[in-house]
Amino acid sequence: MASRYYVYISDAKVDMLLSQVDPGFGRRIITEAGAGLRLFSAKRTVQAPEPDHIARLERVLRHLEEEGRVGDVDEPAPYFRGRLPMRWGPLPGGGASTVYFAGRTARTILGLGGSGGHVLGPAAPPPAQFAPSSLPALLAGLGAALAGEAGEAGELPADDEHLGWVHTAGLLLRGPLQEVEFLARRLLTGPSPYPEIDGRPDLRVLLGSPLYVALAD
Fold it and tell me: Is the CB of residue 117 less than 8 Å from the CB of residue 130?
C-alpha cells in the first residue's frame, strides 16, 4: 500500500466501484483458534477488522490499473492520474458544498471537482446535504459561480461553453499552489475555446471527479 497524505477521498465513488470489482472485500474474516485437550477442545472465533477507507481505495486503484483503464492528464482514459501543482478550495460562489482543484500541464487545463464533504483534515468544510460530483451538477455549479447566478442542469449552454467554464475557473481560482497527486474519473474533455490565451492551438480542457487527492512529497 502506498504511503500518502490524503486531503480528499471520495468514499461514495470508492464503495460503488468496490461493490462491482470485489464484492467480498469488505466482509469480515472469521478464524478459529483451537486447543486440543485430553477431554475437550476449546475454540474461539476472532473477527478481523473491516478494511478502512484507505484499504478500500487501494483495492479499487489496483483494479483500475490492472484493467488498463487509467491514463494521464494529456491522454486521459476513463480514469486518469497525475501529479501537478494545483490550487484548490471551495468553489467560488458555491459555498463549501463543492471543492475544486485547478491546475495544468503544457497541453491541458485541468479541473477536478467533488463534494466538499470528502475533504479530510481539520480544515475540511462541513459536509453538504447534497453535493453530487456528477457532470451536470458540477457544470451547473461552475456556471453559477462564474456567472454569479443559479444554474440548473437542464439549462446548461453548449459544450464549448462548458469547456470555457472549466478553463476560466482555473484562471480565477486563487490561493497557494500545492503539489498534489490524484486519480480521477474523466467527465469532460475537448479543445479549449480560448487557445489564444497561451498561443497554443492544440490546448485542451479536462474536467474530472477525483477518487482521491493527496499531497505529493
Answer: no
Please report the DSSP string for 60-98 in residue order: HHHHHHHTT-EEESSS--SEEEEEEEEEEEEPTTSTTSE
Contact yes or no for 5/15 (Cβ under 8 A): no
Task: Dump pLDDT digits (tens) for 145-158.
Answer: 555 433 333 343 44
Q: Report yes or no: 142 and 112 within 8 Å, Cβ to Cβ.
A: no
b/e burial code for range 94-105 (CB count within 10 A of at least 16 → b)? bebbbbbbbbbe
- Burial class of residue 54 in the structure, from the number of CB atoms within 10 Å of its CB (0-12 exposed, 13-18 middle, 19+ buried): middle
Residue listed under C-alpha cell 480514469: 79
- What tens digit of pLDDT does each residue of 26-65 get? 554 444 445 554 544 545 544 444 557 788 899 899 999 9
- How distant is the alpha carbon of residue 38 from its chain centre? 58
